[in-house]
Request: fold
Amino acid sequence: MAATRFPFRLGPRSRPLLRLFGVRGVENAFVDLDPTTFTARFGWFAVSTPVANLATWRIEGPWRWITAIGVRMGFRHRDLTFGGSPRGGVRLDFHEPVPVGPLHFPTLYVTVEDLVGLGAALTALGVPGEDGRDGRR
Reply:
């Protein structure tokens, strides 16, 4: 598998708010996936980890706008969201938490445009997962 780029879905009404996180457009809001490395860039923020550190993936959503947009940390589960749209995202669970600044996160949500395509690419690399929306697989 060659390296593949998955741009984030950036809602038109969300774009002004996303500029606060350094998101200018799909040129700096994307997931890159190759056979060895997973990288998510969202404006000034980035996560990079070996594919071997990806434990599972799951498509989830949609969510309420106020809880899905921007760079967000869940205090209860210590998850991290890179969110450009409330229409849904891919949840990635890691074997070992990944660092973002001084914090380490066990889970990352990414709201890429092609949720199913990212899931299929992860499956092709041996990462198990499912489409959890409305019982779809």
Observations:
- The chain is about 15% helix and 45% strand.
- The first helix runs from residue 15 to 18.
